[in-house]
Amino acid sequence: MDDRVIVGRIGRAHGLAGELYVLSESDASDRFRSGAVFLTDEESPRQLEIRSSRQHQARLLVTFTDVSNRTDAESLRGVGLTIAADERRQLGDEEYWPDELVGLTVRDLAGESVGTITGVEVGGPQDRLTVLSADGRQALVPFVRALVPEVNVAGGWVVVDLIEGLLNPPPE
């Protein structure tokens, strides 16, 4: 599944007819349209095709063609929906996929390695990089140009301006 990316995660069942809540992890507004096909992220992936989808109380409700009852729907809870990585939209300049950033080395302004990106939280006022520092501390770094002035995915690193308290607690 190295060439696939998760674009949604199945939540709980809704009703008796097999409808499921899906948490979208995609920025493509039509990703969960009728006829869209996904592979699950299970050890033995299954193919799921969307029969219909609709908004319900600010959440996405989906019906898959081969899921017709609540029991079948509940068996999918927590399963990821994947697409081939090359099916994602083209990124603009200074845009990155979260999976491209995870694992990059974090350098300070002097070029010294200070940690590794272990996750990306998308949303809110800005995205945040989860950084595990060399001494084992974890910190959230706002992913803004003022704090992350340079990203080199091909080189395997990002530069972070280590303002006081960002990766280390402020002095007492």
Description:
There is one protein chain. With 172 residues, the chain is mainly beta. It folds into two domains: 4-87, RimM (Elongation Factor Tu (Ef-tu), domain 3), CATH 2.40.30; 98-159, PRC-barrel domain (SH3 type barrels, Roll). The protein is 5% helix and 41% strand. The protein contains two helices and twelve strands. The protein has helices at residues 70-74, 98-101; strands spanning 4-14, 19-24, 37-40, 47-56, 59-64, 80-84, 105-107, 113-121, 128-133, 138-142, 150-152, 157-159. The strands form two sheets. The chain has a six-stranded antiparallel beta barrel. A hairpin with a 6-residue loop joins strand 8 and strand 9. The longest helix is centred in the middle third of the chain and has 5 residues, at 70-74. The protein is elongated and about 60 Å long.
